[in-house]
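Example: Transglycosylase SLT domain-containing protein.
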Amino acid sequence: MRIPTGNFGNVTPQAQPTRIDTGNAGAVGDAVAQLGRSGLGVVEDIQQRQEQDNQNALQALSSAGGAQVNKLLYDPETGMTATRKGINAVGATNDTLKEWDAWRDKQLSLLPPAARQRGEILLTAQRVQMERTSFVYEQGERDRALQETYNASNSASVQRESLYYGDKISTQLEAGSRNQGIDEYGKAQGWPEEKIAFEKTLWQQKAASGAFDLFVSQQKQFMMGPGGALPTTGTPDLSQLASANMYVESRGQQFRADGSPLVSGAGAVGIAQVMEKTGPEAAKYAGVEWSRERWLNDPQYNLQIGNAYFEHLGSKYSNNQVLTVAAYNAGPGMVDDWINGTNKTGKNESLTKIGDPRKGEISDAGFTSAIPLKETREHVQKVLGAAASIPPGATIGSISQMPFWNKMSPQDQSSAIDKMSALYDMRASAGRVALQSKMQDDLALLEAGKNVSPITPEAWASTLPVQATPAERMQLEQTFRHYQQAMSLQPVYQSIVQGTPQQGLAAVQALQPQESAPDFKYQQELYATAQAKLTQVLKAREADPGGWLVQNDETTQKAFSAYSANPELLGDYVKNVIIQKQRFGIKSDAVLPKAQAEALSQALLQSTPENQSKLLDTIHKGTGGGAPYMATLKQIAINAPSAAVAGVLMDKPSSLIAQENWINPDITISPSQASKTILAGSAARKGTKDAKGMTMPKENDMRLEFSSAVQNAFAGDAQGAAMAYEVAKDYYAGIMAQKGDYSGVLDDDVWKQAVNVSTGGVHDYNGMGYVLLPWGMSPEQFDKQVDQAWQTQVTGAGIKAPPGQYGLQSYGDSQYLVKLGAGYLLKSDGSPVILDLTQQRQRFIEGIPQ
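Written out as structure tokens, the predicted fold is:
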């Protein structure tokens, strides 16, 4: 038998009942002795009745104990988790244990004397588990309360400090008090000094950011004049002009949305859009050392050298606003060439001469209109148009002089400028926001292979802001162009998501452009995007077939919803997945979504052996056994291998002769006996918190006998051999526990039984190597079944088998490859022939598969 592969985990053990000798227990013992003199049969009958009464009482006590634990911990009105929250949870463990102890003493007093010792052991185990659960809850609530207090205290301090900016003494006192609290909390938590320092800086930055937000709110109210219009100042000064220049250049951003520095197509960087070749000169004007790192990543530094360079240009051009702004954008050398009609930069080959507005040779407006570079011309127009509306007290320069500015994080400084710029862009395009939301929805539908009604170019154009800068307009147009490109792939995506791999590949290959195509680059981009989508979908299907189908296949969605509402419909869901997997060409064996398989695995791992058997039986009934059941178990085996193997045995149709004897009857094991023994043995090997697991025989002895028994039946499947070995050890432990033998001395007969149970037995077929027998099938039956399968699955299926001596190799549970020489017998399509000897389970007895 081939066991589903996976690493063997542990299952929650169940305490073994302690056998208590009641033969000499007081008056009952005397009575039993007296009855013994009258007749041994009567004595045994009384003892059996007493023991049965004791067992019934202990079983009732166990159930009552579990109910009491749930009541004390989880009762929604009186339980610890409902009534002891936060810091109030301190001491809850001791209080709960006192209630338990009082209840326990009362319950023990009601037990028959002969059962009290076992009852006390049982309740002690439940008490230990409850104590642990209570303690973990108590500590968690305490830590959470302390963390909430810490955060609340610092948040309140930050809010107060935000109000104090402008009052230096109050600000320092508040920050000092907060830092002292951080020191005390950090030391109590065992934080290193670096962590404490980081926390102080973090909360200081939050205070500074809060102060800025308050400033923005106040400025917004202050700046709004009658009718909601922003007041202007007429002719802007150099500070207003510089601020407008920064807003137009970068929208006040140092970084892109992904956190990388904002870099223009020409190479200008950050808030001030300073070119690297200009950086050292700008730093000199600012009186600071040139730092490429700070130029890229420090908005304050970038702004400082940019403002200094802008002021230098203002001085150079006698504060002429047009020339200053044009020089900042195109470079002073270019402006000088336009003024004088020269070509010192090598970029004015036409020797265009505009004239000097400072000398009255041309007006400022005339110079602006005559600028030959479209980008620079539009930039100057935008900056001059925006500068007058910027209040002098809200320029970038004035903001950078605020007391909180230097204490803000670089990211907050960058966003701060953006917040201020938002004050001058009061008209938000609600239509554009709505269309951008639709774009996201459309792209999500496209990814899922659904039909989409795309946004028209006319609808998008109607939402562009009238005052958009050329760069902004270009970015918005680029966004829509990318959207259109994605929408053009809609039929291809539908083929990829809703079709077979072959259909998806055909749709993608149809996009491959010819090198002579006029728009080859654009088509190549579409082709590459479609290829990536095909790869992503195929990988997702194989990685989690159940999850992918639930998301992308309508029939599977309906089946899964029905199963979620009614767990008895698990079989319908699994069968549907198997059908859809065949339709989509998915090769993975998985049928359940990964999350669902994990939940079932955890339920098995956390159950007792008895409950594991019940849960496995429920899964078997739900799937109807066979392929759906085995596929489900194979997924569960990844996290709960022992339980999954036991489930595999539950689906077997017949018993197994675990040991053949010459004189005594053969030892026969039913599938249900084997599965229960494996589950119990796994629990015994693991042990409990208070008791070590069962002592096993020497590993070397067991390994040698296992290898000798299985020979080469696991050829090419080391993982399967390892799993079978662990299952055999579980079965061995289960039998030895039943015998009460915990010596650790290897019982050869039991170990041989265990190996047979875990493998189903091995057989040297045709003298060409060992194979694993189907569980419960004898070698003689196997030979006959192979002959029959050969007639129906090989010759009867039209497969031409060349003459020769064939061997077999185990391939799956009751499945075999046909060996021919050094290779395998193949079908006409090149795939290997697989003989399937799977037997159907015939019936259920009392809900347990037989």
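The chain is about 60% helix and 5% strand.
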